[in-house]
Amino acid sequence: MEQILLETMLRHMENKENILVSKLERHGYDGWITWWIRNSLDGRSQRVMVNGLMSKWRLVMSGVPQGSVLGLALFNIFAGDIDSGIECTLSKFADNIKLCGAVNTLEGRDAIQRDLETLERLACANFMKFNKAKCKVLHMGWGNSKHKYRLGGKRIESSPEEKDLEVLVA
């Protein structure tokens, strides 16, 4: 069994909100809700406090407020179709994707690699990219051949253990 942990990031682009709004409309959200969401993402400012000192207000150029329920929901709608055509088991939570598959046959290992290539294509189509430095392969089970996988031409590093939703998996 292989478990591949992937972390996604939205690319910076000018029309990201328009793409999100069109996906919201396809999911059946009405004009008022899409207007409200567009306005909540447009023209926001933020500041931070560190050790009791407050920064100046700065315009937020992209993204949704970190830690907000709205941010998770919008990301899931934005990236909801990224599992189209995937052969192996795929789990998604916020910006984390977990791809799992059996590797006791060459066909199983090839299916995982094909799915990684599909995920890379779908991520690009959704104006996303994978944070390849944080993507890891967990080789599980006795006799695992520890196959090497690639994502976007870069080899994914293997790891003996990783935290997955704050649970240590080894």
From TrEMBL:
| InterPro entries the UniProt entry points to | RT_dom
Q: Which Pfam families match?
A: RVT_1
Tell me the ranges covered by the Reverse transcriptase domain, including all copies: 21-143
| Lineage of the organism | Eukaryota, Metazoa, Chordata, Craniata, Vertebrata
Provide the protein name. Triadin
Q: Identify the species of origin.
A: Grus japonensis (Japanese crane)
